[in-house]
Amino acid sequence: MSSKDNSVFALVDCNNFYASCEKLFRPDLAKVPVVVLSNNDGCVVARSKEAKQLGIKMGVPVFQVQALMRQHGVRAFSSNYALYADMSQRVMSTLEAMAPKVEVYSIDEAFLDLAGLQPLRNLTAFGLEIRQRIQQWQGITVCVGIAPSKTLAKLANHAAKTWHKTGGVVDLTDRSRQRKLLALLPVNEVWGIGGKLSKRLQQLGIDTALQLADANPNYIRQHFSVVVERTVRELNGESCMVLEDIASTKKQIISSRSFGQRITDKHQMCEAISEYISRACNKLRHEQQQAKHLTVFMRTSPFSDKDPPYSASKSVALDTPASDTRLFLAKAMQLLDVLWVNGHRYAKAGVMLTDFYDPGVVQPDLFCEQANVAEQPGRAQADQKLMQLIDKLNAKQSKTIWFASQGGKQEWSMKRDMLSPAYTTNWGELPAVK
User: Fold this and answer.
1) Domain coordinates of the chain in residue numbers?
2) What is the crossing angle of helices 325-339 and 266-286, to 10°?
């Protein structure tokens, strides 16, 4: 736990991000309620403010609100991950140009370090400048919460979204303003205090965020954990969580999806596993890591009365850590041969890469086949350049190059019947002005 004097953080959060991205290239939907659906178009995972006002809840299955959606003309969209990721990158690039240090916390949130800016600028004015620039450059509305700790910045951002008179920016660097806001918010609004924790705290008479802030940190640590104690200190303006401007390396990479239709053919399962391996290895190289351990898993639907339950996984360790898609494809097909059982209707499958290493830090085994191939003159460098070239081409235009085992039609792929165009990442789907 570390404390830092004069710390100032800003949390910038995109409002209704997925729904805002869908509306961005559709002016006709400016005042229309919009929802974004989960994989296979099953549940609501994002809502515009108009959809929220209709009472549509997060996570509700679509079939339960279809009548309400028809009644009010709600537009539904399948999740367009390419669009959301690209718009997120644009927003984060703008923030990185405005602040010395930025921690990308999620696809639609980022913490900014404003400690060096405080003596030079009015922080509320700077927050409004952030809002104006992102609105003008990316067309996305954001709210900004400013405070001496990350936990308070989260609450300030919540206030900026809740009370429109704030103009979308709340500065909680003033102690008296902190306490006024904390008195208004229930304890379950505090970052990291979930349902179970809030019930335990309420049993002790701690109902508001202010009451938690006024609790004895040592008492909280004894009865809960050091994490909750840290939250108490953060609520009092003590910075216990530093800004992580360098993203931490992942400990595992999972690529998995539920299928749009049940898979009963082994060739289709081979396509699916190959697709997931390709995605996972691309992420692995993006992290500049190599992996030594591969797991393949598949299962039938646990919610179906028609399908007998079947769930299985198999793992294999490479002799030497690698990031070459071809090596993992070969191993995955061997695991698939062991896992596959005829007669099942498979609902989901996936792959997981673990046991990561930095490139070049492991001494290869002299006698393993993988090491002998890598030691051939220029072979390792050529393989690395090939993977880099594939990644570069696919970054410009997805699926420019793919492995034959991934298949072409991929009829098993998840259901996305209401998918919007890839407005920003596909030349063929650029919006047309008539």
Assistant:
1) 9-13+84-235, 17-82, 252-406
2) 140
Cα angle: 157, vertex 159, 161; to 5 degrees? 75
Better pLDDT: 323 or 360: 323
Counted residue by residue, the chain has a size of 434
Decide if 9-13+84-235 and 252-406 have a common fold: no
Residue type, 390: I
Give the amino acid at 217: P
Tokens representing 76? 């539904």
CATH 3.40.1170.60 fits 17-82, yes or no: yes
Confidence of residue 275 (pLDDT cuts 50, 70, 90): very high
Token readout for 226 is: 């050091």
Place of tokens 């098993």: 412
Answer for the pair 351, 295: CB distance below 8 angstroms, yes or no.
yes
- pLDDT tens digit sequence for 66-118: 999 999 999 999 999 889 989 999 999 999 999 989 999 999 999 999 988 87
Q: Ranked by mean pLDDT, which of 110-114, 243-247, 366-370 comes out on top?
A: 110-114
The CATH number given to 9-13+84-235 is: 3.30.70.270
Kindly indicate whether the domain formed by 252-406 is annotated with CATH number 3.30.1490.100. yes
Distances 137 to 24, 99, 142, 432 between C-alpha atoms, Å? 12, 16, 12, 19
**Complete DSSP assignment for 370-398:** HHHHHTSTTHHHHHHHHHHHHHHHHHHST
Q: Give strand ranges (E) for 192-289.
A: 252-263
Contacts of 336 (CB under 8 A, 6+ apart): 266, 269, 270, 273, 296
In the numeric block, the tokens 């919460």 are attached to 145
User: Can you give the pTM of this predicted structure?
Assistant: 0.76
Closest CA to 82 of 392, 422, 418: 422
